[in-house]
Amino acid sequence: MSVSWIPEHVTGPTEPFTLTSGPHAWHGARPTDWAAVGADLRRAHERLRELPVRRIVDALDLAAARWADRDFPERRAAVAAAAQVTGMSTETVDRALDSELGTLRAPSLIAALQRELGDPEVLDGFRAGTTAIGPRVVLAVFSGNVPGLPARSLARALLVKAALIAKIPAKEPNFTAAFLRTLHEVQPLLADAVVATYWGRADDATMSAALEQADAVVAYGSDQACAAVRAKVAPHQIYEEHGHKLSFGVIGDEYFRLHGPVEVARRIAADCSDLDQHACLSPQVYLVAAPHARAVAEHVAHAMRRTAADCPPGTVADHDATVLQHRRLVAEWRAASTPTGEVWAADGLEWTVVLDDELLPLSGAGNRVARIVAVPDVAAAVDVMRPYARYLQNVGLGAVGEEFRRAAEELARLGASRLAEPGTMSRAGMEWRHDGQPRIAGLLRWCDVEHGNWSTAVPAGVVP
Question: Which UniProt keywords apply (predicted)?
Fold first, then answer.
């Protein structure tokens, strides 16, 4: 099955491409006349503008409902392919898709629209003297190996009635086209407004040609990859990026006493195991109130073992395995050199728990390593994060009452864009302003009416 999606109305010439990962290969087609693609997508945008936003929400919801069934054939094929290319277990991929597809259900989409726009129907025309206009074409450059990652940006573009050029991620190329095939069955106008394909990072000619068609650009990837895209964006183009980010967890004294060591450990293990800890939303470190750090770490080791049995970890690539083994050796050396440190680990590389009293320079990430670092209290945990403020994204904040309020306000000022309950760090809702910015409203321009003739120009039954 092709990993690209080119609607039938896009009739220009194409060329084949092949993506490989070890013994696995995936094939697709890539347009070669991007000016023609741009013209076709702008016409698709005009047709999309006639579709009420509520019908767009309903279509996305129906497609997501089909994909919510784990036995849905398109999903089963996409899960199997994602497991091959990412090395994740099928259960890990399924759980990732459960989370991502849940954000495309109608209540989540409506909540996101209302949070950012107030009245979603400003996308359909003037409401109370204002209307919102989306870009004609969005270019989205996807990266990473998180299954279902393109779903949010795809939905945001279609909600604002923009056509989309999607550069699919090489590390998980199957989801986008598969989901678009389902969306085409549900509402062809939406899928017909998207071209999903692939080109290599070094293919500047294709990147520039696709970029010329866009009014807005969304980029995912490393800081280096995002910088390369940013350098090509013109002043008139809206630009948003999602680069390198770090996330932390915190467990305060009162939170520990409220929930107990077993439940706290279960939540930490979930955060450090979801998506094999490869998402930016996954914690690199859990900062735990010192009196409870050892008890938490011991219980986390048991919880990580249970989680690995329930949701097996994926295959660790050779380079990552070397890094992980080195991290274990360093942790074991420190544990032998300090009275408070300790390491718990599976016989293989399935999971690792490290207890330390110092946050060493962060090196390496992922592959289910729960680093528990003892701190005096929640305020001290916030201070530990300050050197990483530039990259701070998500904090699993285990605190209660006034301590929670003070920490939340300080973390918001520090740069965190999301504060989550421990145990839910990787499951962000569509309502989250991704990386601290309104990602729906950020694609829009507005028109406000300040004119004396407005009241007489408004048809009967239309909200002025």
Answer: NADP, Oxidoreductase
> Degrees (nearest 5) of the Cα angle 165, 222, 177?
30
Domain ranges of the chain: 14-244+431-448, 246-420
Question: What architecture does CATH give domain 14-244+431-448?
Answer: 3-Layer(aba) Sandwich (3.40)
Task: Find out whether 396 and 411 touch, Cβ atoms under 8 Å.
Answer: no
CA dihedral angle for residue 106, residue 107, residue 111, residue 113, rounded to 10 degrees: 10
Strand ranges, E, within 95-150: 130-133, 137-141
Residue 246: what pLDDT?
94
Rounded average pLDDT over 192-202: 96
Euclidean distance between CA atoms 371 and 61, whole angstroms: 38
pLDDT-derived band at 460 (thresholds 50, 70, 90) equals: very low
User: How far lies 93's CA from each of 27, 149, 233, 282, in Å?
Assistant: 21, 11, 33, 15
Q: How many CB atoms lie within 10 A of CB 316?
A: 20
pLDDT digit string (tens) for 156-176? 999 999 999 999 999 889 999
Which homologous superfamily is 246-420 in? Answer: Aldehyde Dehydrogenase; Chain A, domain 2 (3.40.309.10)
